[in-house]
Each structure stands twice: as C-alpha cells, then as structure tokens.
Amino acid sequence: MNKQLEHQFVTELENNQNIVHKVCTLYTNNRDAHNDLFQEITIQLWKAYPKFRGDSKFSTWMYRVALNTAITLYRKSKRRIQTQDYDSVIFKIKADEYDETEEQQLKLMYKAVKQLNDIDKALVFLYLEDKNYAEISETLGISEVNARVKMNRIKTKLRTILNP
Amino acid sequence: MMDELDLLKKDWQTKEGNLPKLSYDEIHKMTWKKSSSIVKWILIISVLELVLPNLLVLLFVGTDDWSNNDLGLMANYYLGFNILYYAIVLYFIYQFYRRYKEISVLDNSKNLMRKIIKTRKTVKHYVIFCLAMILVFFAFFIVSFYVDDNILLSIEGIAEKAEKVPLEKIKYAAVWVFALGGIAFAVFMGGVYFLLYGLLLRKLKVNYSELKRLEV
What we know:
The complex is a heterodimer. By secondary structure, chain A is mainly α.
C-alpha cells in the first residue's frame, strides 16, 4: 500500500489513539495484554483502512473495528504473564478532585464495569463515550429497543453492586 | 440520586490524560506486524484440514500396495469413488473460500460473529465428511474381501498364512481388524479435531450467544 495512505492512517490513529486505549483498558488487565490488543486493533484498522471512504468520521469508524477486534477477533496470547493490575494507574482517582464518597463510588463502579461480560462492557463503553442507542445498536447488530433494555439491566446490575 | 452511570460517564471523559500515549513511529511499526486474530488462525487450521486428509490419501493410494491392479473387480468402483470424493472436496474448498471472503471487521459485531461461525461450520462439515469417508474407505475393503479373494491375498504376508490357516478364518479376522481399526481411527481424528475447534471458538461462541439472547 502506498506511502501516503500509510502516513495518513498513522496520523489519524495517532490523533485518535485514546479510543483504542480505552477499549484496551476495559478488555485487558495488564500492560502486556493492553499493548497486545492495541497492536491487533491497529493491524485490523490498517487492513480495513482502504475501505474507509471518509463518509463518516475516522473516530466513528474506529469504534466498530476496535470493539469487533476486542470481542471477536482477539485471541489472548499465551506469552502474556499476569503482571500487576494496572487499572489503578489508568483510572487513578485524584483525592483532591472528588469528595470521599464519590471517589469510593467511582472506584467501585470501575471495578464493577470490569467484571461485566464482553458484550455488556461494549454497551457500557459506547454509552460512556456518549454514543446514542441508534449507534450502539448499529455497532453491535442488535435492535435499538434491545440495546435500551440491556442497558437498563446493566444499570440495575451496577446499582446493586454499589448499594448492596 | 444521580444515575451511577452518568456519574461514571462524567469521570470517564475527564480521564483521557491518564491514558498511555504512543508516538507516530510506534504506531507506524505496528502496521507492519502480523495479525494473530482468530480469523487468521481459522484460515491456517482450515487450510491444513482441507489439505491434510487429501495428502494422506494420496500418499496411501500412491504406494504400489494399493495400485488399482490389486483391486480386481473393485477397481472401477474405486475410481468412481475417487472422482466423487474429489468433486465433493472441491465443493467444500469453494464454499470455504466464499464464506471466508465474506468476513469483514467492518460488519456489526453480531454479523461478524455469525459469519465466522458459518465459515467454521463449512470446515466442520468437511471434517465430518472426511471422517465418514474414512469409514467408507475401510468398509470398501471389507466388502472387497468378500467379492474378490485376491485382494486379501495381495496384502503382504497373507498368502503364506493362507497355506496354514483356512482363508475363511483369515477373512473373518481381517474384517474385524479393518472394522475396529476404521472406527478407532475416525474417533481419534474426530476427537482431536473437535477439541481444537472448541478451544478456538469458545470465547466467540459465548459472545455470540449473548448477543443472540438479546434478540429473544
């Protein structure tokens, strides 16, 4: 593939890499796995890039490829060793920014979200990224009504974890 | 009380500063790496599965012991069986290729999973077909022992044995050996295959059934 296309792609991805990092953070538990998944998503994005026509935003297009890679294509590699759980690094809650109860609650929330299954995580992720139900249903291939129902169930699930 | 998720959403969107940041060069390097995705593995394993049984057959049939001359009356049936076999193999390869080409990471998640499972199913059917063919292959020889004594006698060592033991007895033993051998071989190959298949697609199947469950 030609150099210009490659340059264009890498620049776009560099500018939008947060989306991929956030997916990796949700779906993996340590830095090695995070990097592994990031790499696989990058490869998938690059392979699909010639089909990206620019009729949607690059970032919109990325969500689908990144999530599909995380929940469908990605195979955990054997060489991965369990290093320290680094959620605390990514989602570090700064004590001075929040009052104590809220901080505590957020910590619990992040923990709870990480415990959800792959599909629930995908729904929560798109919701956190401010996607509407039409986009969520289109990305996952379920109906809008079902996306809403599912989301409500997840909210209830999270609420029970927070207020036992 | 504020919706917990909205609280999380507010926090989530302010957290971007804590995410790792890769440089242009680091990302550029990644575009040259090889994918290790499930689809890649399916392609590798499937191609092996499509090719290996045929290689085995070719090696087996290619030796002098199994040349058509020894098959006597059964030779024509054997040829017909081969033509049919390869026609079906070609059909499977075509089907597999068509479905493999349909897999796209740009599809929605449910379709993507469905297509991967469908592609894999083609290979699964092919493997079941091969296992059945193994049984047919063994059955073919069992039948041929009864049709033509020379086939049995052409197997190395049998002719000398036949001078001491009645041929009927040898025939009886050979039928059992071929029948049990055929079944054991098919079960073993099937076991290995389904273990591999199950391990590779476990995660995908869990996620697919979760998405499908949502539609009920």
